[in-house]
Design brief:
The protein is mainly alpha-helical. The chain has one domain. A two-stranded antiparallel ribbon has the order 1-2. A hairpin with a 2-residue loop joins strand 1 and strand 2. The longest helix has 26 residues.
Length: 260
């Protein structure tokens, strides 16, 4: 509980970033929680899993808030969401099971590499070129499985994967972001459930249920919901390209530090 202020600050920062850049808070929440849990002397075998599971849990309330806002603007492509959702749920549960089997050090390396890939994409502004239309329900469910699996393993809402997938399939950027926000909810719910179940018998710290640490979850979720609208407001007044490059450099530093 001595880290309550840091949790609140982390939630505020991740909420602003989510609203400002549309970047999932997990990219920041996971490494910061990893550092905090290390200072609290949590077991080295589980602190990375605890950070990922807690990050996924914080996405649930923020995703609900985001989806409501996008739905009011009729921006969510619900037929696409319902095609992706079964695969996403299966993938998120599978991702939690896979993560449980990985040593904390390996999970940390996987997250760091993913962080560096996202940083590269943001810094150079790499975007997929619309190449095809959305195809069969089966292929969308298969794509959802891949998105859900990777997202659960690294503790994110999947926006950095879902948005490019939808853009590649000739979806307007506004609809891609809105639909991605909706997809973040089943990722978060299924992933959190998976991390709670798989972590149930682990050597857990007090105030934890499986791989979810409740003091961090409550504080981060509370502040991120409050500050996300502020980031969205600023998004219309700030040069987001320069900001994305600056944030990309920040992610590069975090990713390299985690690898070292």
């Amino acid at each position: 509980m001595e880290n309550l202020f840091i949790y609140l600050l982390l939630g505020s920062f991740s909420g602003v970033l989510a609203g400002l850049l549309g970047v999932g808070g997990g990219l920041i929440i996971v490494p910061v929680l990893t550092w905090i849990f290390t200072t609290q002397n949590f077991s080295s075998e589980i602190f990375m899993h605890l950070a990922v599971g807690t990050s996924l849990a914080t996405i649930i309330p923020t995703s609900i808030s985001s989806v409501r806002a996008h739905h009011r603007k009729s921006a969510v492509l619900w037929p696409v969401f319902f095609s992706l959702a079964p695969g996403i749920i299966l993938g998120a549960l599978s991702g939690a099971i896979i993560a449980k089997q990985l040593p904390g050090s390996n999970l940390k390396i996987i997250f760091a590499i993913f962080e560096l890939l996202i940083a590269t994409q943001l810094f150079f502004g790499i975007k997929p070129h619309p190449a095809r239309q959305l195809s069969s329900t089966f292929s969308q469910a298969s794509a959802g499985t891949i998105i859900g699996t990777i997202s659960a393993i690294v503790g994110i809402g999947g926006g950095s994967l879902t948005v490019p997938y939808l853009l590649w399939h000739n979806t307007k950027i506004q609809s891609a972001i809105a639909t991605s926000s909706a997809c973040g909810l089943p990722i978060a719910i299924a992933g959190t459930a998976g991390f709670i179940i798989t972590g149930w018998s682990s050597n857990l710290p007090e105030y934890s249920t499986g791989f979810v640490y409740w003091p961090a979850f409550i504080s981060i979720a509370f502040c991120s919901i409050i500050f996300a609208p502020l980031g969205a407001h600023w998004a219309h007044k700030i040069n987001d390209q320069k900001l994305k490059k600056g944030f990309a450099v920040f992610l590069f530093i975090i990713g390299i530090k985690m690898l070292m």
